[in-house]
């Protein structure tokens, strides 16, 4: 058997393996929309299963990675005082300004007293931080469905954006699959030539 056969057949096998796996990887994402070809309907696996994929991602994120209690704990670890001070100052500024403008009351509401009132209210609210976080956690449990939010977000992605997100994560692995097709094709080609050599 001519030596070129040992090169040509494995090379052809590698090319076929590379093309086959390239098409297989491409068909994960394309066609983005269903295309009818005779009795067949061609539709990329991921676009076709996007609603199911979105639901599963939502379940994983909402039930195993992040839930409402995790979000509430994150709030609990924050220093709430600056936020509380800002909220109270905004809420009280107008009302205290109106009271200070009254002749009888305004005489008693000096800047120092107003500052003391604000500080006292802030201290009282911050002292109830644990209670606030508890109420927040309960409210999040009642009204925040992380799994549903994530599922709806993923389901609403344009197919091209979802494809890009997956490629950003798995591009190297998908390229490895294509390369593996070429390697396996070459190995099969070598095996075929070897079998031909063994035949009488």
Question: Could you characterize what this model shows?
Answer:
The chain is mainly alpha-helical. The chain has one domain. The protein is built from ten helices and two strands, in the order αββααααααααα. Strands 1-2 form a two-stranded antiparallel sheet. Strand 1 and strand 2 (40-42) form a beta hairpin. Helix 3 packs antiparallel against helix 9. The chain is rod-shaped. The chain starts with a helix and ends with a helix. The mean pLDDT is 83.
How many strands?
Answer: 2
Anisotropy-based shape: rod-shaped
Query: End-to-end distance, in Å?
Result: 12 Å
Weakly predicted, low-confidence segments? none
Radius of gyration: 33 Å
Order of strands side by side in the largest beta sheet?
Answer: 1-2
Q: Which percent bin holds the helix content?
A: over 70%
Number of domains: 1
β-strand amount: under 5%
Provide the structure class. Answer: mainly alpha
- Distinct helical segment count: 10
Averaged pLDDT: 83
Q: Can you write the helix and strand succession as a string? A: HEEHHHHHHHHH
Question: Main sheet, how many strands, which sense, barrel?
Answer: 2 strands, antiparallel
């Amino acid at each position: 058997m001519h030596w070129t056969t040992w090169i040509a057949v494995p090379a052809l096998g590698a090319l076929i393996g590379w093309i086959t796996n390239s098409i297989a990887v491409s068909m994960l994402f394309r066609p983005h929309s269903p295309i009818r070809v005779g009795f067949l309907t061609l539709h990329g696996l991921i676009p076709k299963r996007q609603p199911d994929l979105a639901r599963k991602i939502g379940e994983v994120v909402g039930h195993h990675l992040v839930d409402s209690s995790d979000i509430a704990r994150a709030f609990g670890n924050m220093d709430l005082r600056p936020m509380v001070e800002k909220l109270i100052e905004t809420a009280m500024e107008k009302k205290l300004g109106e009271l200070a403008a009254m002749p009888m009351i305004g005489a008693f509401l000096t800047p120092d007293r107003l500052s003391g009132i604000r500080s006292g209210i802030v201290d009282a609210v911050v002292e109830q931080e644990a209670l606030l976080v508890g109420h927040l956690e309960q409210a999040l449990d009642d009204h925040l469905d992380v799994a549903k939010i994530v599922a709806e977000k993923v389901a609403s992605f344009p197919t091209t954006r979802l494809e890009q997100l997956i490629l950003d994560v798995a591009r190297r692995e998908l390229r490895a699959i294509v390369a593996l097709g070429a390697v396996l094709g070459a190995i099969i080609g070598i095996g075929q030539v070897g079998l031909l050599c063994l035949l009488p």
